[in-house]
Amino acid sequence: MSQRTDDLRISRAQPLITPWILQEELPLADTQAEDIATARRNIEAILAGDDPRLLVIVGPCSVHDPDALLDYARQLKALCEPLQDAIYPVLRVYFEKPRTVIGWKGLINDPELDNSFRINRGLHLARKVLLDVAELGLPAASEFLDNTFGQYYADLVSFGAIGARTVESQIHRELASGLSMPVGFKNATNGQVDVAIDAIRSASHSHWFPSLTKEGTPAVLQSSGNPHCYLILRGGKDSGPNYHPQAVQSAAQALAEQGLTASLIVDCSHGNSGKKPEQQAQVVANLCDQIDQGQTALRGVMLESHLVGGSQAMAPRDALNYGQSITDACLSLSDTHPLLETLAASVRRAR
Question: How far apart are CA 324 and CA 320, in angstroms?
Fold first, then answer.
């Protein structure tokens, strides 16, 4: 009997729905497709400096309760209506969570919050959430972590992000090169900015890479390159915050030296807030001062915000506080609103 050498540590396998079938079950309406295409063009114009508004990507750290997210989205849209001459709101809709060691991996991987890993159900929920957000008329932003999940819902995303843990990954640079929306690359977790600039340069080129077709067939795809990739400053473990004027100017100069658009998005959370949600307000105040002083490279901000401030430990769904994060702590929406007004006022003054 020959020695077995394959799948020694694979204990189970489950069938995975194909992107084509999921899109047939949950189709994108023509009006929604037009809204998403328009949102992508608006974001590109803002980040290129052709639209004077400020891009504001705001919402929960991650989606664990679709009903709470949609409740947040409706309230956010109403709060932003009088501000849309100055800011362009995009809802943060993140389904995947990269873990340093272990932990909840997000709605797609574990939609029941119980380690059952019903990924087919998670993909259905994710696509339905994005369709509901599109129906509200809000653009959506999402991080791409798994390099195949995007085939199931990328048509509904107006802004994509590659996170700090994956910015150095060749696979994610290739993925970004083929995405149909503008993409932001975060600086590395240690604060290094040059790796994100390298990623932007790489993603602008054509690549060949293995993936899935919409029919679920393994294939090698060729991208044409993504000309709409941007730098996100999120601070780092070693460097500390990088939203201050010197760091912003240095990053803008580094982009220009590589022949790239000197356009920056500042993540007010993560390393820039020391993971203390209330400190996002200090970051916003500093950014507003820079805008007032004529810093034109600042074209976007990210805020982590939910209906209820703070965070809670993961528990059975019926035991959780409604509208409160189970991952990173967030600002409450009531505390987020004045920050949106402050940003809008700063943009109006600078304009």
Answer: 8
